[in-house]
## 1
Amino acid sequence: MDAESASRFPAILDICFGPDRTSKIAYRFRDGVPPCDRFGLAAHAEEGMIGGIQYWPCRVAGVTARLLGPVAVLPAWRGRGAARALVNQSMDLVAEAGVDLVVLVGDAALYRQYGFYPASAQSLFIADENPERVQIRPLTPAGAAATGEVCTAQKVLA
Ligand SMILES: CC(C)(COP(=O)(O)OP(=O)(O)OC[C@H]1O[C@@H](n2cnc3c(N)ncnc32)[C@H](O)[C@@H]1OP(=O)(O)O)[C@@H](O)C(=O)NCCC(=O)NCCS
């Protein structure tokens, strides 16, 4: 995601998730840590940016991992495949980069179609997060064998 799109995305996120979105546990991964710009994408229509997706670093023992999200599309543009394009195209970039494992916090029903399944099936977890909302998609055999806590980048650096 380019810098201009990144500067516009928070306003879209406020509309889609509400202004208290930053109190969610997933924001622990984003607090003070820059996003992985090479994987983020913006969706545009004639009137401007209508949605986007970003990734953040996270750490899982023994593998390279990234946290998918947020992904959001403005209400007027939903139901037309924008989110599907954002997820599929960005996941291709993540896979090409050799990342072992993608983690997200979200509805299993939404992300199953993209190959995600509950992290608990692989004994992976995010501290304090509802286990039913933590989904994973391994991209390599190492990712499929990973277990344990999904840590913030800050926690590992600290
Ligand atoms: C979720 C969101 C990104 C979907 O955007 P969208 O552009 O309307 O999605 P698409 O049109 O690409 O839909 C792709 C598929 O996902 C399905 N889908 C969309 N939202 C869904 C949801 N909340 N739960 C389950 N499936 C969903 C669609 O039905 C579609 O499948 P189909 O083609 O088989 O019908 C959008 O509704 C949004 O921004 N919501 C608020 C923010 C949010 O909840 N983000 C996700 C955080 S976990």
## 2
Amino acid sequence: MDIKTERIDPDQTGTPCRFCGTVLEHSLIDLGRQPLANSYLRDRPADLAAEQRYPLHVKVCANCFLAQVETAIPADAIFSDYAYFSSYSASWVAHAERYAQAMIDRFGIGQASLVVEVASNDGYLLKHFRDRSVPVRGVEPATNVAAVAERAGIPTQVAFFNRETGRRLAAAGHRADLMAANNVLAHVPDIRDFAAGFPEVLKPEGVATFEFPHLLRLIDGIQFDTIYHEHYSYLSLMVVERVFGDVGLRVFDVEELPTHGGSLRVFACHAQASHAETARLAAVRTMEADAGFHRIETYLDFTPKAERVRAGFRAFLARCRADGKTVAGYGAAAKGNTFLNYCGATACDLVCVVDRNPEKQDRRLPGTHIPVRDPAVLTEIKPDYVLILPWNIADEIVSSMGHVRDWGGRFVVAVPEIREL
Ligand SMILES: [Zn+2]
């Protein structure tokens, strides 16, 4: 298919596609005006009153099919106070260790290699390579987070990654055998400039891997709650191959992962490198073609499905109110905030949301202002229902919170439909 790549015309009306410049006319879903999903509020009237909201509308480009938030919030407004440290999550640390071993085995990464990670956070992934005597280098935009990595012995450059950063790394002699970019491709406003940094740094036969939530799973699972301002793009393999092709990268393999409700790990190399295409790459291409990802009509069915999820949740809350049942939430995660705000939930609907992260406790959720509490309060409140907001780890939560059943409490999830566990 012929893809136009003209640059933005300042005289045209409407928002241009961030990749190809075509005016965006088609809606995947409009979630209304929402606060930043990770901006937990101090429980003070002035802080609650000063909260900002921004439009959260995902559109799909009819030319290149990139699904994208229409109004981008400047990245520095989001990342300057970025409090998330990867090492806090035990399951992510295990995921990182498995990744490191798999790449070492498959691509023969060793003491003479260099592994570069983009958005390297506190070094949670690179340390698994360093522990196996592989030289590493991180690139991380948040100064405070990069400092934690440096203290742990992971050399880290403070920068947003793009073509210019890639050139600087290469000029300083940092050419990579392996580059990792996990859960960052969807979070960058200028996806082309970001992707263009990789060919600058990769050695001729070097490999870059990218993990991102798969748009196919978002659409199939009606996962509109995974949409938030920090997440600029919603990616298919088809779109990623186009963006990469435009900057001289070629995808040669893809792996399906269960993380974040269904992700892809894409393997890319220089267009001229010798890595052969795998059968599973062909399989994912076929899945997307069968789902109709090359037709704009496919994306327009999503909004009515999300509206049905919202109606189902509202009906559940109305039944609880009528029957005098109490509902508490579990997991003050970004996806829960998008969901509760879209559904118009308030502190009258949910007495609180509990979370194990002490940074979030005794704050208020953005938008809904529902209080966040320590999970221990559930034994005092004894809610009739515990709504699990991070449905992707519902099994883990149910097994660790079994005592909720002691007072007859029941677990529910609301996506893709209200369902008792
Ligand atoms: Zn486009």
